[in-house]
Write a sequence for this structure.
């Protein structure tokens, strides 16, 4: 009889715990709200800045903040979402690992009543995140495209190095660039190849392109790492002074190369602006705001050899 | 009896855990959520050309003469109180340092180049009215009449800019080029882009919305 009573009591407790586990555990009314920063990777300094700025801004606004590293793994990201939901976080600032694969994770948070604000990378849905704060890749590359056309005086041969072909940013950048450049028929794209946003791959790809097309005037690269790789290939081929290289990101090494007149121009993204805005949106959400724009573009600034003096000199490595 | 109760509770708990561990969702719902952003499902594809045409004829052109700021007044305020100038007169659909102003002015044409018409304002400043490089979001954003909340995806926003710029190329630039003669006076309304953090007023480029010769 005693055993039966104990078993029943234990079962009762387990039932209570399980039921509670399904709900998000809400903290005391007086305790600060909790903000989770779930970032695709902390293995890249750019994303470290993004995550840390978001967490710092959330703390500055009076909230608890914790960073979760998804290590570019969507299932690890799913675990982080489960944890944040169960641990009673009140908002998630997300840099998704995969624009399609992360949708289901964001949906889970939405179903649990937790707002999700995407930073820098988008999810391919307009119905799950509360708002998505994204670099205006397209418009940034429109500005780069205009500078490109002006610098080349509307004519010449060029190569385009694309980023990862499955990545939205790759195509937004390429489309913005071509929306300008394709209006000038004397500008001929002699080769276009993916170098996966990777410096070494860009070096190899451009080296092989140069063998088939030694007579080029410019290389447009979908990010700064590839621009650095392309520049290296041009140096090796003795063409660094004749061929203009364009990048995108505003990475320190490219900003320094623009200053040294090695790279022509780049589009400067601001992870700080995106991260701070995401934290401020979470704050506004807690205070009752609900009419967020689904996608908020963050301006990308054109940095050229003429405007580089406006920007601080980054520390040389 | 004891054992039966334990088994029953055990099975009950297992059932509850299993129920809590597995989610069932309609495949079409998940697919719809996944593709909505790409514009493949849900509502019909956004038609940028008619949107831009309506914006141009029924909103921008009627509102521009009154809502545009006098360029010389703006330039003077930018030099004395940059923050006030940006917070009072600039617009942008996105966030960041790049902001747009809807401005108007009048001045004498001093040069006609292949890419621009240069106009000298009575206040002494010069402004370059673009005739070749009609790109970017200046005209879309400068009036503040388009709201970011109207759009679910950035591709639609970008196509609105492209269509507005096309209207300018077709309807504003040809008469501007025809009327631009050095020494003659032009009245203009247009949009300029300025960087809030890195402000440069030495070279002012304006995308024209209206440009007319002033009768002297």
């Amino acid at each position: 009889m005693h055993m039966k009573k104990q078993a029943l009591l234990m079962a009762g407790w387990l039932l209570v715990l399980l039921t509670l586990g399904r709900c998000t555990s809400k903290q005391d009314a007086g305790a600060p709200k909790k903000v989770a920063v779930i970032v695709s990777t902390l293995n890249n300094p750019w994303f470290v800045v993004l995550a840390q700025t978001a967490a710092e801004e959330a703390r500055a606004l009076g909230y608890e903040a914790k960073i979760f590293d998804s290590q570019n793994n969507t299932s690890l990201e799913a675990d982080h979402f489960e944890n944040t939901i169960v641990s009673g976080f009140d908002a998630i600032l997300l840099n998704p690992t995969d624009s399609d694969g992360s949708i289901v994770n964001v949906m889970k948070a939405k179903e649990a009543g937790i707002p999700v604000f995407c930073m820098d990378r988008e999810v391919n849905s307009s119905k799950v995140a509360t708002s998505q704060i994204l670099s205006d890749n397209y418009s940034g590359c429109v500005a780069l495209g205009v500078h490109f056309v002006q610098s080349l005086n509307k004519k010449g041969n060029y190569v385009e190095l694309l980023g990862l072909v499955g990545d939205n940013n790759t195509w937004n950048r390429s489309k913005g660039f071509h929306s300008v450049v394709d209006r000038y028929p004397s500008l001929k794209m002699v080769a276009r190849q993916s170098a996966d946003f990777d410096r070494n791959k860009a070096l190899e790809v451009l080296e092989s392109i140069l063998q088939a097309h030694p007579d080029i005037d410019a290389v447009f690269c979908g990010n700064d790492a590839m621009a650095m790789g392309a520049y290296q290939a041009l140096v090796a081929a003795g063409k660094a002074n004749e061929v203009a290289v364009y990048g995108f990101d505003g990475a320190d090494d490219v900003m320094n190369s623009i200053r040294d007149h090695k790279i022509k121009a780049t589009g400067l993204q601001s992870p700080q602006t995106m991260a701070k805005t995401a934290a401020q949106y979470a704050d506004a959400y807690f205070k009752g705001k609900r009419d967020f724009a689904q996608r908020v573009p963050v301006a990308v600034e054109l940095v050229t050899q003429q405007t580089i003096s406006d920007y601080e000199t980054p520390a040389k490595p | 009896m004891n054992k039966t109760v334990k088994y029953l509770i055990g099975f009950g708990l297992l059932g509850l855990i299993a129920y809590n561990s597995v989610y069932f969702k309609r495949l079409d719902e998940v697919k719809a959520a996944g593709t909505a952003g790409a514009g493949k499902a849900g509502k019909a594809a956004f038609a940028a050309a008619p949107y831009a045409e309506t914006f141009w004829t029924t909103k921008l052109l009627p509102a521009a003469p009154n809502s545009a700021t006098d360029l010389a007044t703006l330039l003077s305020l930018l030099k004395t109180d940059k923050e006030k100038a940006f917070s009072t007169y600039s617009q942008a659909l996105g966030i960041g340092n790049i902001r747009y102003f809807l401005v108007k002015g009048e001045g004498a044409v001093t040069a006609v180049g292949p890419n621009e018409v240069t106009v000298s304002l009575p206040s002494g400043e010069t402004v370059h009215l673009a005739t070749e490089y009609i790109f970017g979001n200046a005209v879309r954003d400068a009036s503040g009449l388009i709201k970011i909340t109207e759009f679910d995806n950035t591709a639609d926003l970008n196509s609105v800019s492209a269509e507005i710029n096309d209207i300018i190329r077709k309807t504003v630039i040809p008469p501007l080029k025809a009327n631009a003669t050095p020494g003659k006076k032009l009245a203009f309304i247009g949009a300029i882009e300025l960087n809030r953090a890195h402000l440069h007023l030495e070279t002012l480029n304006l995308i024209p919305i209206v440009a007319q010769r002033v009768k002297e």
Q: What stands out?
A: The helical segments of chain B are 2-21, 27-35, 48-67, 71-80, 82-89, 138-142, 154-179.
